[in-house]
């Protein structure tokens, strides 16, 4: 008989008792922080570039409008369209859209509604001028053109 006993095999298991807690915490984190896309853009967007940009303070007061050639040209044609809230509208419907967007806001915030126009760089100026005129008639005076920041080459 030997004086020394062999050591029993050491278990090298990873403790998994806290694994469900970690998984549920991650699941809860992503459920709380994930923001679903509100609209799917159906017009082509190649935004122009600019050098002087300003960031918005309150995005809750912004209504987005997309202008560009439709992605499904066989269904909608190649003429630039105005898209708001997943639907195409004509320039004459802009006043009604602005009023519905203002109705969603509190009464004291309605004058602060900012219309953000994401216009394709290939869009014609005529449709943009028509939209600007209708926005003026709807008393939506805060207008924003979304662009990409121009990269400066060294």
Description of the molecule:
- The chain is of the alpha/beta class and 154 residues long.
- The chain is 28% helix and 18% strand.
- The chain has four helices and seven strands, in the order H-E-E-H-E-E-H-E-H-E-E.
- It has helices at 19-33, 73-76, 94-104, 125-137; strands at residues 49-50, 62-68, 81-84, 87-89, 114-119, 142-145, 148-149.
- Strand 5 (114-119), helix 4 (125-137) and strand 6 (142-145) form a beta-alpha-beta unit.
- The radius of gyration is 27 Å and the shape is elongated.
List the helices and strands and how they pair.
Blueprint: H1 19-33, E1 49-50, E2 62-68, H2 73-76, E3 81-84, E4 87-89, H3 94-104, E5 114-119, H4 125-137, E6 142-145, E7 148-149
Parallel strand pairs: 1-7, 2-5, 5-6
Antiparallel strand pairs: 2-3, 3-4
Q: What attributes characterize this protein structure?
A:
4 helices, 28% helix, 154 residues, two-stranded parallel sheet, alpha/beta
Quantity of strands, as a count: 7
Low-confidence stretches: none
| Neighbour order of strands in the largest sheet | 4-3-2-5-6
Gross morphology? elongated
Biggest sheet, open or closed, and with what strands and sense?
A: 5 strands, mixed
Helical fraction:
25-40%
Strand fraction band? 15-25%
SSE run: HEEHEEHEHEE
The structure class reads alpha/beta
Distance from first to last alpha carbon: 81 Å
